[in-house]
Specification:
Number of strands of chain B: 2
Strand content of chain A: under 5%
Radius of gyration of chain B: 19 Å
Radius of gyration of chain A: 20 Å
Strand order of the largest sheet of chain A: 1-4
Order of helices and strands of chain A: HHHHHHEEEHHHHEHHHH
Order of helices and strands of chain B: HHHHEEHHHHHHH
Oligomer: heterodimer
Strand content of chain B: under 5%
Structural class of chain A: mainly alpha
Largest sheet of chain B: 2 strands, antiparallel
Helix content of chain B: over 70%
Number of domains of chain B: 1
Largest interface: A-B, 45 and 47 residues
CATH topology of chain B: ABC transporter involved in vitamin B12 uptake, BtuC
Number of helices of chain B: 11
Helix content of chain A: over 70%
Shape of chain B: globular
Distance between the termini of chain A: 20 Å
Distance between the termini of chain B: 55 Å
Chain lengths: 336, 294
């Protein structure tokens, strides 16, 4: 009955989270709503990265590049083809997914640090490549989306379900809806045969092959799926910033995504949310500690190192430990 | 032909710099099993120490150079002791994140201490050129090649012919058995980090005269060093140096003679080298294929 209990628990957690997401905007300012919208965007990307790093054990330092593919797909569709912003998101996910599959084909042969270096190379090259194809991407000056009719709620608030939503509130609702859909999709994908194959690849590639897991297929698939989520996040990012240029998706974005997934803790939704919150709020918090030049970066670096010292499994590991402690206490009080 | 040879010499000079930093990466990879993403920032930090000593305190170049190497050596050991050792037995992912934290920490510290303003470091070699059989060779290039290759050579002698060098190699190849025969493995790993910091310092100090010194100075050089280490084989010290020289000369020639690449696309070209090598021969030129036991 273990599976059923965990399924029920996942559903309960999911429902509770959805409720929080719906209620939250009524209690926070417009500015906060925008910040929480970015948390939702990072969460979408982290859910994707978790498929790759958490389940398949492959390190990617290049997921910012797949976000860039998604972001530019959205920007080009909106600016040049008049597609409404919401409808560009699935297209952006599909395009980034295909890019991920194509990169995953050769990358499937690499493992561990070699893959980290290869993906890092992709992330570093992305801004230069975007500038090179300036006919499509607008080069260094980028593509401006602000004030375009395709951008929902950018000029006038939208009305839905009898609520007047400002741009930031609308952004918040959109990004968290996408994040929750992404979570459900990832959960459906990972709970069955595919998830088992991914985990087998992570635990031992050699053993996985001997048990009949098609290594190349599942590694490539993990890359594609994970890139598709990053693409959706990139699309949201472009919509949220109403602007894309080569510096919208810098190397540091790729690095911070990996930081988020490790600090949050691989594998659990609560951990991934913690990671997304970390990506969004830690730089701001470091800024508030000291604003003299360079100091926030020092604070960020120190905290990152300390978190890795204290929480080897990230925040998810901490939650897991707390949970097992309380459960042990509960069992003892029942005298079992 | 003269122009071609000139390009080769200046390529060798930058190649020596890439090779030293690549060798630093390889040393740490052999000792700790990870790629040290903070290696570039560590090198830049050392270069700032040199700048402080020469420009602020009026030291002559070579004493400042030697003191910088000593401080870097101590700094490398300190970083290993304080930051790396606590996570050394953990997962690769955890150590990678710690080196990224270190990168941010050192980068921010440089801006904090020295501000982000650009500084200029006077090189020890004259910038004039001399004529060698019709080829104009810059003395700065010759000096750069001599110092980088000299450092690497000294290091090779140290590893081959001293007891400590042997112990360090043993600790890297098989820590458990090395410990059984009385090698203090943890010290050796720390020593590896110290030597890597020294190599990084050399590459940083050689880069500075022909670049501007700011907290991001070595970030691009680090990418070239990655390419060099991958090309030579990430486990092979000889490979790192040869890879560095090949990358230096190759990129210089591509930049000079292939219009499409020029100077703007040199970085993507280096990245393309990384990707192609990883696809075709992941172990690099001198590396050994990994054999896994279950």
């Amino acid at each position: 009955m273990r599976t059923r209990r965990s399924t029920l628990r996942a559903l309960g957690l999911f429902a509770a989270l959805a409720a929080v997401v719906v209620v939250l905007p009524h209690f926070v300012s417009d500015f906060r709503a925008q910040q929480f919208a970015y948390v939702g965007i990072y969460l979408t990307a982290l859910i994707g990265l978790n498929v790759l790093t958490g389940y398949t054990g492959q390190i990617s330092l290049g997921h910012g590049a797949f976000m860039a593919v998604g972001g530019y797909t959205t920007a080009i569709l909106m600016a040049d083809h008049g597609v409404k912003d919401v409808w560009t998101i699935p297209i952006a996910a599909a395009v980034a997914g295909v890019a991920g599959l194509l990169f995953g084909l050769p990358a499937g042969r690499l493992s561990g640090l070699y893959l980290a270096l290869a993906t890092f190379a992709i992330a570093v090259a992305t801004p230069t490549v975007i500038k090179r194809f300036d006919g499509l991407t607008g080069g260094g000056s980028g593509i401006n989306l602000f004030g375009k009719p395709e951008l929902t709620a950018s000029l006038t608030p939208v009305e839905s379900f009898g609520l007047k939503l400002s741009f930031n509130n609308w952004l918040y609702a959109l990004s968290w809806t996408v994040a929750l859909i992404a979570y459900v999709l990832a959960w459906l994908l990972l709970r069955g045969r595919t998830g088992r194959a991914f985990r087998a690849v992570r635990d031992s590639e050699t053993a996985a092959v001997s048990s009949g897991v098609n290594l190349a297929l599942y590694k490539t698939l993990a890359f594609g799926v994970s890139a598709a989520f990053a693409g959706a996040a990139g699309a949201l990012f472009a919509i949220a910033t109403t602007f894309v240029n080569p510096d919208t998706f810098p190397v540091s974005l790729s690095i911070f995504l990996l930081v988020g997934v490790v600090v949050g803790g691989l594998g659990s939704l609560a951990g991934l949310i913690a990671g997304a919150v970390f990506i969004q709020f830690m730089p701001l918090w470091a800024q508030s500690v000291s604003s003299s030049p360079g100091a926030p970066t020092v604070v960020y670096g120190v905290i990152l190192i300390l978190v890795m010292f204290v929480l080897p499994g990230g925040f998810a590991g901490l939650l897991g430990r707390l949970e097992s402690l309380t459960r042990r206490g509960y069992d003892r009080s029942r005298g079992s | 032909m003269a122009d071609f040879l000139q390009q080769v010499v200046s390529g060798l000079a930058s190649g020596g710099i890439y090779g030293s930093l690549a060798l630093a990466l390889v040393l740490i990879h052999r000792a700790t099993g990870v790629i040290n993403f903070a290696q570039g920032e560590m090198a830049t930090f050392s270069t700032y120490i040199l700048w402080t000593l020469t420009a602020n305190h009026g030291w002559p170049y070579w004493p400042a150079f030697a003191v910088t190497l000593l401080v870097s050596f101590a700094g490398g050991i300190g970083i290993h002791e304080l930051v790396i050792r606590p996570v050394e037995r953990g997962s690769v992912l955890r150590i990678v994140i710690v080196t990224i934290g270190l990168l941010l920490l050192i980068n921010g510290a440089m801006t904090w201490i020295w501000t982000g303003e650009v500084r200029y470091v006077q090189g020890p070699f004259p910038t004039r050129t001399i004529d060698v059989g019709g080829v104009a060779v810059s003395l700065q290039d010759i000096g750069t090649i001599a110092v980088s290759i000299g450092t690497v050579g000294l290091l090779w002698l140290f590893f081959q012919f001293t007891k400590v060098g042997l112990a360090m190699r043993a600790a890297a190849v098989n820590p458990a058995e090395a410990r059984l025969v009385g090698v203090r493995v943890t010290w050796m790993l720390g020593l590896g980090w110290g030597l890597a910091a020294v190599l990084g310092a050399v590459s940083g100090m050689l880069t500075a005269p022909s670049a501007i010194l700011d907290p991001t100075m070595m970030q691009v050089v680090l990418i070239y060093a990655f390419a060099a280490a991958v090309l030579g084989g990430i486990d092979s010290p000889v490979g790192a140096v040869v890879g560095g020289l090949l990358i230096g000369v190759g990129l210089n020639l591509l930049g000079a003679y292939v219009d499409f690449i020029g100077s703007a696309l040199q970085l993507p070209a280096a990245l393309a080298i990384i990707l192609i090598v990883l696809m075709v021969r992941p172990a690099g030129i001198f590396g050994r294929r990994e054999v896994k036991k279950i």
